[in-house]
Specification:
single chain, alpha/beta
């Protein structure tokens, strides 16, 4: 159970008069038969009056709530029904004494009748108030609700952690899908470039083949031309001697005309 002045009513808190700290006047018979007037609490707002909550939980009569001490007598706990209201935790509990177990329905009806005449909105937690018996019963109930709230918080935190991990997983899957798309695109680009390289290599090979064919043809033409020149030289007639050269050779130099 949370205590202190830092707590505030929730947005859905019941704000009617039944949930605010209230007292009533009772008369308690003293040991000598005289009546002692005393103020006792019938409702406790746990947010505005946490010290009253501590007294409600106390078993020691010197600290307990709704204890009257008559002159010449021992302290007496006045066991009136008490409405415990925690507008921050959205809890409303009707605390009865063990001796009042036989009138639980009557006290339920009495509190519901008070709600019936209340003009303030009544949230579900107030309409479905719990009933406990004595300080020990209230303590067990509040501890149970606190444990439930803790488990709900842990469950919510676990749910948020699960959602966070799910979001991270979805992001990683999206990143992986994006990377896969980029890889596929690069693979297609590489394949396309490979095809282009193969096509260019084919063009180069065809160009080389054409050059080789042209070189062979040129060599063939050269060989044919050379063969024709050789053949022509072999079949050409011998040249006739020059008459003047013949005379000069046989009888001496030719006359000079003197």
């Amino acid at each position: 159970m949370a205590r202190g002045t830092s707590r505030a009513p929730s947005q859905n808190a019941y704000r009617g008069s039944i949930g605010r700290t209230q007292t009533t006047m009772v008369h308690v018979t003293g040991p000598r038969g005289d009546l002692v007037a005393a103020q006792v609490h019938t409702t406790i707002d746990a947010v505005s009056d946490p010290e009253l909550v501590e007294r409600l939980h106390a078993e020691d009569l010197s600290r307990a709530l709704n204890v009257v001490k008559a002159e010449g007598g021992d302290p007496v706990r006045v066991t009136v029904p008490v409405v415990y209201h925690d507008p921050a935790a959205e809890l409303m509990v009707l605390v009865l004494a063990d001796a009042h177990r036989h009138i639980e329905l009557d006290e339920r009806i009495r509190l519901l009748t008070r709600f019936k005449s209340d003009e303030a909105p009544i949230p579900t937690y107030a309409k479905d108030f719990a009933v406990v018996y004595g300080p020990a019963g209230l303590r067990r109930y509040l501890e149970k609700k606190a444990q439930e709230a803790l488990e709900a918080t842990r469950s919510a935190e676990g749910g948020r952690e699960l959602e966070r991990r799910k979001a991270e997983l979805e992001k990683r899957e999206a990143d992986l899908e994006r990377m896969r798309g980029e890889y596929d695109k690069r693979a297609r680009d590489i394949e396309r470039r490979g095809n282009e390289v193969e096509a260019a290599r084919g063009e180069v090979d065809r160009g080389r083949a054409d050059l080789e064919r042209m070189r062979v043809e040129v060599e063939k033409l050269r060989s044919e031309a050379r063969n024709r020149v050789i053949a022509a030289a072999q079949h050409a007639p011998a040249p006739l001697p020059d008459p003047q050269e013949s005379q000069a050779t046989s009888i001496g130099p030719a006359p000079t005309g003197r």
